[in-house]
Amino acid sequence: MYRTMTPLQLALKYMDIVFSNGDMMQLKGILAQDLVFNGPFHQSNTAKDYIDSMVEAPPEDFEYKLIQSFETASSACLIYEFIKPGVSTTMAQVFEIKNDKIIEIQLIFDTAAFQ
């Protein structure tokens, strides 16, 4: 089977869209329609719901610095420092990949940094 992007490349593409590009509609090209997203503040079971949430309340004035990345044949993990005014915390995201699309994202961080 020909793969267009590795799991790590897909994960980094996601980060580029969310953190740098800002055009959340571009996520449609890399997310499976039945995407499952789990994070401390948000959960969704479709790419549409996830993208709609990002469009309705877009993250603003933030960046990340990659600390470490790992990859398997079907997943990627990014550990990074999330930075915005008044907040700096370590986050981890695990991306599960199937058929060249992100099918699941698990976002892990300590919510205390946002209190």
UniProtKB/TrEMBL annotation:
<dbReference type="InterPro" id="IPR032710">
    <property type="entry name" value="NTF2-like_dom_sf"/>
</dbReference>
<protein>
    <recommendedName>
        <fullName>Nuclear transport factor 2 family protein</fullName>
    </recommendedName>
</protein>
